Amino acid sequence: MKLIKTIAAAAALCGLTAAIPAFAQSKTIYIGMNGGPMEKAYTSQVLPDFEKANDVKVVVVPGTSSDILAKLLANKTNPQIHVVFLDDGVMARAVSMGVCKKLDDAPVLKELYPFARMKDDMGAGVQLGMTGIAYNTKLFKEKGWAPPTSWLDFADPKYKGKVVFQSASSSTFGLHGFLEINRLWGGSEQNVEPGFTKWQSTVGPNVVEYIPNSAKISEMVQTGEAGLFPLTPTGVGDLQDKGIPVAYVSPKEGPVLLLVDLCVVNNNPDPQLAQKLAQFLLSAPAQTKAAIAGKQIPTNRLATMPASMQQSLGNLDDLVKKVNVVDWDVINAHRAQWDARWNSQIER
Known about the structure:
Elements: H1 2-24, E1 27-33, H2 37-54, E2 56-62, H3 65-74, E3 83-87, H4 88-96, E4 100-101, E5 124-136, H5 137-143, E6 163-166, H6 172-184, H7 193-198, E7 207-211, H8 217-222, E8 228-231, H9 233-241, E9 246-249, E10 256-265, H10 271-282, H11 284-294, H12 307-313, H13 316-319, H14 328-346
Parallel strand pairs: 1-2, 1-3, 6-7
Antiparallel strand pairs: 3-10, 4-10, 5-8, 5-9, 5-10
Helix pairs in contact: 2-11, 4-14
Keywords: Signal
Protein name: ABC transporter substrate-binding protein
Signal peptide: 1-24
């Protein structure tokens, strides 16, 4: 009898031991995206639904788009990241460098705004942004200034010493602002001479500081240094949540389309699961939650936004008809020369 009990106990222990690896086999999948508000919104409200439905852990690898692309290029043949979010300009470079794998054909792709589908479905927009004009509402009230209305307001002499401009060589917001002002002076992506020629005598005198990214804007608004600067509705919403007195304006000439695109990383360890995650993130339920949690503007036409976002942005279908679209293939072909010229001529 004692022997039987011993055998039974051993068998039970073996069964328990066998169960442990099965439990531990729950997969981990990695996604690269911006840290801060975006990471918080996705980790708190969006990704848990995918984890629960697929018995998988999704780990965010935070970083700027350029940082994430650098990681992918350094491990191109054996990447550990499965899916990435990149700003559209950086994503165009990533696709051209063979980093991305074509998205599987799926019904969710047909739910996206047409401009959110990249050529050959090598990626797709997961968040819609628009670079427009943000302004310091407290300062404007004190000065008795009406809200700005045009990209050319950055050249208005009354704003001397109150314009903060992100560096066009390191920031998409700064580059968008420069290209739109260049366009209004008769230029284009193929011709940036008007922008570089006229900048120092128009916008330049108004700029109190060129900043590499938007991180410093919060502080500069509170000190009264920043009165006017390029930014997106989501960026403005993040500042408002912190009690910073700012507002967003869509310029009369139109804001600039700014997409955060996703792509499935080529050669990733689990392409099937990566495709499944990509489709989930493009879905209406996921994008609705991202809008609620982090003011992420959806690219899926079936997703909904909170009432506060709808009130601030207006009808999204109408708004997307007014956005200006830049040609990233042309920009990336000339970006190195532009960056060098900006750094030596504008920020010298």
